[in-house]
Specification:
The protein is α+β, with helices and mostly antiparallel strands. It has helices spanning 104-114, 159-195; strands at 8-12, 16-19, 27-34, 39-44, 47-53, 67-70, 73-79, 85-89, 93-99, 120-133, 138-153. It has one domain.
Length: 196
Amino acid sequence: MAIKSDREYRMVSVEFRAKEEEEQKYIVEGYATTFNDPYVLYTYDGVDYKEEVDQRALDGADMDDVIFLYNHEGMVFARQSNGSLKLEVEEKGLRVWADLSLTEDSRRLYEAIKTGLVTQMSWAFTVEEDSYNEKEHLRKLLKIRKVYDVSAVSIPANPATDISARAYFDGVIEEQRRRDLEREKQKQRIRIKSMR
């Protein structure tokens, strides 16, 4: 996958399925992300670093002409500008509806989803505002600037998710280590003073 450094990618384990309808035979739907539902992005040294998307994070986000991909790359299977992709911000999360009837390749992806070979979704986005709760090791996405794509993904342990998680949480972990080291030095100074 061609990872773009200015975007974050998230795979979510939420319902994604082919819709059984007589008149619309190639419709898939699911959630690209859910709101107020913390998930573990990265585990380091036995600590789970989590992330949560705020219910209002997509308010005002640029969601113009989002495209539907497979694993965030390659050919476009559906897109908003031609009506084959619809996104709706609901209470639960960002709902995706896609018509995969337009090309032979998109119909093959539909079959992979229908048979349960592909069951996960992901989204690519940029963050405008976030916060971090050090005690809970929880990053909260407060405002999304732009949504680029929603994707069907095949492997739950999506490497893009791990890479973007490390990019953010490496700095958090490094800062935490620095503070822990400073506290330990301070304790040693106090012990030395009390021994005098």
